[in-house]
Design a protein that fits this description.
This protein has 582 residues and is an alpha+beta fold. The protein contains 15 helices and 21 strands.
Length: 582
């Protein structure tokens, strides 16, 4: 990580490492705050076959079949009650499959994955040890530890050093190795070997095998857009870099406002086509980047004489080559012998500066770290700077801007921009009002979080006020909520917001804010956006730019705003009417 990851310059919050189960807990709590209720099969008390009510969440139910027609989806869910397997039929308008990398919804919809399969098989060990957490916190603070020694090899992920929560990832080679070989006691001994000390308070919570893939679903929509994939169900990556969670959250952010727009009658069902148009290219890009990052991670053991591709090749020969005719016990013994021989490369007698081979390997290792060619944990340009080139937006047609540079596996800093399809840049602003409290927030907080609302950001100049009137009038025509943000330059005199009240009269769905700069030579809002203050930005409910005007309206403001809202809401009839006018 770099110092700027914690300075809150390009984002109102710092980078964080957060485990999925903790995120799930927070999400459930937030749903409870929104009056959602969740039920287990036992908690429904005879209501198993009653129609679902609004804001109900069923826990412990598994989707086993999907039957989609032109106007409805019928889902059969299996659950266990009183020791018996039972089924329940649920009718709905659409199904969103967010059921993980092995997605049942994806399989039932007949959607294949494309990419690289079976990059590595691993066993994941979730365990607690405050003893280890305290030691690492005081002696070797970090988040990710690659451990190679003559007795064991593994990757230790520190989810919470203070609480002593860890996940250990170890290579897994079935069928010569079985999950039964990784009992809690065996895993404890393996952990002791890896960390180089015994831990008196170790508690192994869970042990799971999994397979690393780098794949993207061939499509994200099925059955007339009534079956939708998101998150790991739509794409699965090697874990380092946080691509899985970040890309999945981005999917949901993109999809939620579009589904809500359909349900509320604001947009047609065809707006869902833009979900795949916008999100699938990002998933493909991140897949390529995650493979590059995985290969960079493997460069470290490779430099030490532990080339993982050799181990995997030997494993394939044992499984499918001449080794497959040998008894299983002999296969396991051969594999163990090869691993012992491989780990011997890490012995101090070999890996030292006085040994020519060891000295060369150590030099190669230093070069990898010095040149930044090892595993990267942060990708700001991809996490914050991803951009939709087409979809629910008005794309650039000036020919100067193309797609993003191809992934190169190296960290690239995020450069804010207000190009259509980009995420709205962050800047601290102060809300101007008649009240004594002048709160400071991020420009990202200007977007409503609880309703479908578009935001038009303008400077306090007369032509932009005229544009704002047009935008609000068009929004009323399209029956969608919109609000105007008048952004004043830093240092504006107290009471300047009166000008907006006069210029936007009789409208009241607007707000005045003023730039808050960290220093006098810091960039202005319009400089950050790479625009002039004669421009304007229309922001979607998911904080992405739907349309922008760099330097003032040329022509009819009403026509321009109809074009912008039509594109953002996929209202083809309005687009055709405009084309006919031309």
């Amino acid at each position: 990580m770099q110092p700027q990851d914690f300075e809150q310059v390009v984002s109102p919050v710092s980078v964080a490492h957060f485990s999925q189960y903790k995120l799930n807990t927070l999400l459930l709590k937030q749903l409870e705050n929104l009056s959602f209720k969740y039920y287990t099969p036992d908690g429904l008390k005879g209501l198993d076959h009653e129609p679902l009510e609004a804001r109900q969440i069923l826990m412990g139910y598994e989707c086993v079949s999907i039957n989609a027609s032109d106007d409805i989806v019928s889902v059969t869910a299996s659950f266990l009650k009183d020791g018996k397997h039972m089924e329940r039929n649920i009718k709905c308008n659409m199904v969103v499959g967010t059921d993980g990398a092995g997605s049942t919804v994806r399989k039932l919809a007949g959607i294949d994955m494309r990419g690289e399969k079976d990059l590595q098989k691993l066993v994941s060990v979730h365990f607690l040890s405050r003893d280890l957490g305290n030691y690492l916190h005081s002696e070797r603070p970090g988040m990710l530890f690659f451990i190679f020694n003559t007795e064991a090899i593994g990757v230790l992920v520190a989810h919470d050093l203070k609480q002593g929560e860890f996940v250990l990832q170890m290579p897994f080679y079935p069928p010569q190795q079985n999950l039964e070989d990784f009992s809690p006691k065996t895993c404890e001994r393996m952990i002791f070997k890896l960390v180089g000390r015994e831990l008196g308070d170790i508690n192994v919570i869970d042990i799971k095998p999994w397979v690393m893939h780098a794949e993207v679903a061939e499509k994200f929509l099925s059955s007339q857009n009534r079956v939708i994939l998101a998150g790991d169900a739509a794409h699965r990556f090697p874990p380092a870099g946080g691509f899985g969670m970040n890309t999945g959250i981005q999917d949901s952010h993109n999809l939620a406002w579009k589904i809500a727009s359909i349900v509320k009658g604001i947009a047609p069902p065809s707006i869902l086509n833009t979900y795949e148009t916008e999100r699938r290219p990002i998933a493909i890009f991140n897949t390529t980047l995650s493979i590059q990052n995985f290969k960079a991670a493997m460069a470290v053991p490779g430099a030490l004489g532990l080339d993982p591709t050799i181990a995997n090749s030997v494993h394939r020969v044992i499984n499918k080559g001449v080794g497959s005719i040998l008894p299983s016990g002999l296969q396991s013994a051969i594999l163990d012998g090869i691993f012992i021989l491989g780990r011997a490369q890490l012995s101090e007698t070999l890996l030292n500066e006085n040994n020519p081979v060891g000295a060369l390997r150590l030099a190669n290792l230093r070069r990898i770290f010095e040149e930044g060619k090892s595993l990267q944990l942060q990708f700001p340009a991809e996490d914050l700077g991803f951009r939709y080139l087409e979809g629910a937006l008005v794309p650039d047609h000036n020919g100067a801007l193309g797609g993003p540079d191809g992934p190169n596996g190296r960290r690239r800093d995020y450069v804010p921009t207000a190009d259509p399809g980009s995420r709205l840049p962050h800047m601290n602003v102060r809300i101007l009002s008649n009240s004594s409290s002048e709160a400071t927030i991020s420009t990202l907080d200007l977007i409503s979080g609880d309703k479908i609302e578009f935001l038009l950001i303008i400077a306090p100049i007369e032509p932009s006020y005229h544009l704002a009137h047009a935008a609000l009038k068009v929004a009323e025509e399209f029956k969608v909520s919109a609000r105007v943000c008048v952004l004043w330059p830093a240092g504006s005199a107290k009471g300047v917001e009166v000008g907006s009240k006069v210029s936007l009269k009789p409208r009241d769905n607007y707000m005045d804010v003023m730039e808050v700069k960290k220093s006098s030579n810091a960039s202005s809002w319009w400089d950050i956006c790479q625009m002039t203050d004669k421009g304007a930005i229309l922001v979607r409910p998911d904080e992405h730019v739907a349309w922008r005007l760099k330097s003032g309206v040329v022509g009819d403001p009403m026509r321009e705003m109809r074009r912008a809202f039509s594109a953002a809401l996929c209202l083809k009839s309005h687009i055709k009417d405009q084309e006919a006018d031309h």
